[in-house]
Amino acid sequence: MHVVQLIDSLNWGGAQKLLQTFAETARPSLKRLTIISLRETHPGVTIPDQLRRAGCEVITLPARHLFNISRIRKLVAYLRQQDVDVLHTHLTYANILGPLAGRLSGVPVVSTVHNEFYDPKRDNRTRRRLETWSLRWLSKRIIAVSHAVAEAQQHRFGAKPMAIIPNCVMPIPSISPDERRQLRAQVAGETTWLLISVGRLARQKGYPDLAEAFSQVHQRYPSSRLIIAGHEGSTQEKLKERIAELNLQDSALLLGPRSDVPALLKASDMFVSASLWEGLPIALLEAMAAGLPVVATSVGDVPRVIEEGCGVLVPPGEPARLAEEVCALLENPGKMKALGEAAEAHVAKHYAPQAWAAQLLELYQAVCAR
Questions:
Q1: pTM, 2 dp
Q2: Looking at domain 177-350, which CATH architecture does it have?
């Protein structure tokens, strides 16, 4: 089977991580796997190279406008000429163009919806309507990455059912004690407690709430540090301003995009998420796979993942409560250790990549057969 996965970009993000996981897990079961990006990759991002090492062909089809005729023709021609069996699309632009190209080329299309909600301040209504129409009428199957995403998005697609295939996570490699000490010192200096959050600097991630919560944690634990690893986004400048207002410039550190997030997780003591909405965040699954205790907001499918004994849930938009729960764990290292061990065991059992990839391959086969 020749599978093509079409995505808006190959810059850092949860959807891009899933493409890597699929390539590393399912590539041996496929005749060919091609990844097509609709945008150029930012300098320093290693995802295309990692995909090539996994045996994928990587193609970039950038254009100034969404409905660029030349790009659509190239995409349709590729699908027609390369014996493609199924096209799988991810994110908004790909979910608009992919089903159209699939219909024109005669290739069946599967599309994934990754988020529970969209940022109302940045969402383009016309683009969202185009995505809804394209998925509803041109895609063969729609995948939701979590139960919460399916529940929130089903109304867009009428009676067309959504397949729920929850996200997965690869095992996180261990690092030595020396590597751990060196990495901690490199990113945060001397610290007793190192907290980490991972994700693009967008409104969805609730980073101002996280900064507010950490300011309260830092008052009680002055040697604590917070590191945020994530690509620049719409809230970056406001977050920097808020960190300065709270006088946290030396203790709340924006690392920018990092290719060593698994190692950063292993070097940290706790994962904290203040998201306002989510689907099923890959960063959360990675933190749990790394054996970290987690304090996270109860949004999306996070409550389904963090079962009792695997982490702590707090309501979104309540930084004081978030700070309270973080401090309560820092006061109880034994509980932190127990939560981390339970989290690691839970994701290994329920969110393994092999079972996830098998579900996707089964769906592809069903779509091709139909």
A1: 0.91
A2: 3-Layer(aba) Sandwich (3.40)
